[in-house]
Design a protein that fits this description.
single chain, mainly alpha, Na+/H+ antiporter like fold, 81% helix, 0% strand
Length: 320
């Protein structure tokens, strides 16, 4: 099998191969320890490759409701972390896990979330615009929300964290723009499946590195593992449901898209900005992979059920 065909194969079976990275990390702690120092570099490389997949000309033409986008951005990066922080005051979690949940909610959506939203029949244009906008803006909002509004101990100064994030985003965008100019937009679109294969390889390596120490922690404290799993599922599913309800006035497809990306955040990019995060943050990130892979399957079932109900109601109205 040639390299190009191998990348295409990985792109077609992305979910399976991405998930195996975490298993490798759990089963091979020395390998996880070896890759762990390279996590920031892997995140930067992932950003560059993901940005190469975006058709910016198409995105710009789809900007039709700037007011809605602004409201949704404020909700994604400010409203949701503040609301979660207020809710966590009534839930007994360790300070480290509570801080991880809030910073997760202050992070931008996953780069892959718009693609999954499209597969679920949701508004792809809105989710793409919000994901790009949130990724560009969050280096400014996350340190402010975390340090000044929520009074979290970020481990680094808010200015330092913001500068690191800004440098990561700006550097990735500049590198992606240069590569796009050199390679050509049309050629990149033609080989999108191979780019997906590169994304899978990067996420596979990242999944190994992020699991350093996870196996020992899970064996030593199974209660922590259960707490983390309950927390990530509650946070992800709760944010999907709440955001969908809040934006239901925009229409079912748009509200569902905003809800979906609200419950799928790119916590990896926040982790990559500092080496001073506590170990619980990385365990929280490892647990996040379960809702990232399982929630779309559950939402697919729910959307299919609603679709069948809508079809039955439409048939009844036609008969009457």
């Amino acid at each position: 099998m040639s390299l190009s065909r191998g990348l295409e194969y990985l792109g077609r079976h992305a979910t399976i191969f991405m998930a195996t990275g975490f298993l490798f990390g759990l089963c091979l702690p020395p390998l996880a320890e070896l890759i762990r120092p390279w996590l920031t570099a892997l995140i930067l490389l992932l950003l560059i490759v993901v940005l190469l997949r975006i058709n910016y000309a198409q995105v710009i033409t789809q900007m039709q409701a700037p007011g809605l986008l602004l409201i949704a951005l404020v909700w994604l990066l400010v409203g949701s972390p503040v609301l979660i922080a207020l809710g966590l005051k009534y839930i007994h979690l360790s300070p480290e896990i509570a801080a991880a949940v809030v910073l997760w909610a202050a992070s931008p959506p996953l780069a892959s979330a718009p693609a999954v939203a499209l597969l679920l029949g949701l508004d792809g244009a809105a989710t793409i615009l919000l994901t790009i906008g949130a990724t560009i803006v969050f280096p400014l909002t996350l340190p402010l929300v975390g340090a000044y509004i929520l009074d979290l101990d970020l481990g680094v100064s808010p200015l330092d964290l913001g500068l690191r994030l800004l440098i990561m985003i700006a550097g990735a965008m500049a590198a992606a723009a240069l590569l796009s100019w050199r390679i050509g937009v049309a050629r990149l679109q033609t080989h999108s499946l191979r780019i997906d294969g590169l994304i899978v390889i990067i996420l596979f390596l990242f999944g190994i590195g992020v699991m350093e120490g996870a196996a020992d922690a899970l064996v030593e404290s199974p209660a922590l593992a259960i707490t983390l799993l309950i927390t990530v599922f509650a946070a992800s599913a709760g944010m999907v449901a709440l955001s969908t309800l809040l934006f239901l006035w925009t229409g079912r497809r748009t509200a569902g898209g905003i809800g979906f990306i609200s419950g799928n955040r790119n916590f990896a990019i926040t982790l990559g900005a500092s080496g001073a995060w506590p170990a619980e943050f990385f365990l929280f990130f490892a647990a996040l992979q379960f809702p990232i892979y399982l929630l779309p399957l559950l939402l697919r079932v729910v959307t299919n059920m609603f679709g069948k109900v809508s079809q039955k109601q439409a048939k009844k109205s036609d008969q009457n």
